[in-house]
From TrEMBL:
Protein name as it appears in the record: NAD-dependent epimerase/dehydratase domain-containing protein
Residues annotated as signal peptide: 1-27
Coiled-coil blocks: none
PANTHER family: NAD DEPENDENT EPIMERASE/DEHYDRATASE, NAD-DEPENDENT EPIMERASE_DEHYDRATASE DOMAIN-CONTAINING PROTEIN
InterPro entries per record: NAD(P)-bd_dom_sf, NAD(P)_dehydrat-like
């Protein structure tokens, strides 16, 4: 009886979500920071694909999606998304196209370039929309990951960028009080727990766990990064609450201003690169084709694994395609959880796959790609693929449930994540096709 009720509840939520997406489609403006990164690219691709496949979407000549990238990347990225738009256009029965605009972004300019993008998004538009609409959604994905000369300064920069997003939205409301603003913050599993930090319930990590152990350490960039993700999410949430409390007290004009924020906490993100548009493939280098034109540590890592340059490791994983879909839904969903604490989702498999099982999945991907090509790849010797035999897990052993994610993702977002095996196979095959 309980299972039947839960199934009916899930169907009701999914139907409500689909109706909401259809009725508010013309109100949906997306601004994506870090849009040329591994996750950012997939998020923009998912947004574009969704708009072109939705017959109810009201196309505007004004930007529907704004991609924020480093200044030197603007020209290439504009060509990239123009080409993808042309490909998606072929699937429509009309001649309308989705406007994607690429603009320069500096995550440490106190929100100046983000503000420019928001003003560009509403130019020529009316924001007198229904209360349920969410006209502008900021997908804040930009963040620095990896070793730098000053990891502490880098970590503080990550935090500042998240704070600046909320402050920029607050100032935007002063000028445009009738707008509806949302932030989808790309956080991390690093914000949920530190290395070896035990879960609050003593069993597995949930969305109520927070990293309380990572510290700033000039000799440990990994700890600095983990600290920055937890602190970025904390500070963003604190500022959102401060703003909303002030709006509630000062709501004399009845605009009902509110910044809604949803935090997404993916584990280690793997998956195939975002497709390169057909017309740009001839000019793409092998590296560009392999990475989809974006920098990705996970793609580099898998490339090393399937070449046998380093042993395959056990990782708690999330598929980038599922992560992108979660961003899409989080940006448009109207049936939000009531509490801020529940507007936080772990994006991950629930069990860490062993390094041996991961290696086997990669091997299947290599074999599948070679069978499709009809010839082996001269750069790959499958006998060299090995796996780590030392690591047994952090606070939770490999093979044991590590996160509470699947049920909430299915019930609230309508998403079922791919298996880690499928992710690894698809990634290996995609990379092999570029060698």
């Amino acid at each position: 009886m309980k299972m039947k009720y839960r199934h009916q509840q899930y169907q009701h939520r999914l139907l409500f979500l689909l109706v909401a997406l259809a009725t508010s489609a013309d109100a949906y403006i997306s601004i994506v920071t870090g849009a040329n990164g591994f996750v950012g690219r997939h998020v923009v691709y998912a947004l574009l694909q969704n708009h072109y496949s939705d017959p109810n979407y009201q196309v505007s000549s004004e930007p529907t999606i704004i991609c924020l990238v480093r200044p030197e990347k603007v020209q290439y990225e504009q060509s990239f998304w123009n080409a993808h738009g042309d490909e998606f256009q072929q699937s429509r029965t009309d001649d309308k196209s989705i406007c994607v605009k690429v603009m320069p972004y500096d995550m440490l300019d106190n929100g100046e370039t983000l503000n420019d993008a928001m003003e560009a998004a509403i130019k020529g538009r009316s924001l007198t929309l229904s209360a349920s609409a969410c006209p502008i959604c900021i997908y804040h994905i930009a963040s620095v990951f990896g070793p730098t000369p000053d990891p502490i300064l880098t970590a503080k920069g990550n935090v500042q960028s998240s704070e600046d997003v909320i402050r920029t939205l607050d100032k935007f409301y002063d000028r445009h009080p009738n707008s509806k603003l949302r932030v989808v913050l790309t956080s991390s599993m690093a914000a949920v727990r530190a290395t070896d930090q035990p879960p609050l319930n003593g069993k597995f990590y949930t969305h109520r766990d927070w990293n309380t152990l990572s510290e700033l350490n000039e000799n440990n960039w990994g700890s600095c990064y983990q600290w920055s993700k937890a602190e970025s999410e904390r500070r963003a949430l604190e500022l959102v609450r401060e703003c909303n409390d002030r709006y509630a007290k000062d709501d004399n004009d009845g605009t009902g201003r509110e910044i809604t924020m949803i935090a997404l906490c993916p584990s280690f993100v793997f998956g195939p690169p975002c497709p390169i548009p057909v017309e740009m493939r001839e000019d793409a280098t092998d590296t560009t084709t392999a990475t989809g034109g974006s920098s990705s540590y996970s793609l580099t890592l898998i490339g090393q694994w399937i070449r046998g340059n380093s042993p395959v490791q056990s990782r708690l994983c999330a598929d980038v395609r599922d992560v992108a879909k979660a961003h899409l839904v989080a940006g448009t969903m109207t049936n939000l959880p009531r509490s801020d604490a529940d507007r936080r989702y772990i994006l991950s498999s629930e069990v860490r796959l062993s390094s041996e099982a991961t290696a086997e999945a990669l091997l299947r991907g290599v074999v599948r790609a070679q069978e499709k090509r009809g010839i082996p790849c001269i750069d790959i010797d499958v006998s060299k693929i090995s796996f780590d035999k030392q690591f047994t897990g952090g606070a939770i052993s490999i093979g044991m449930r590590e996160t509470d994610a699947s049920e909430r993702l299915k019930e609230d977002l309508g998403i079922v994540f791919r298996s880690v095996e499928e992710t690894m196979q698809d990634t290996a095959e995609a990379l092999l096709n570029t060698f």
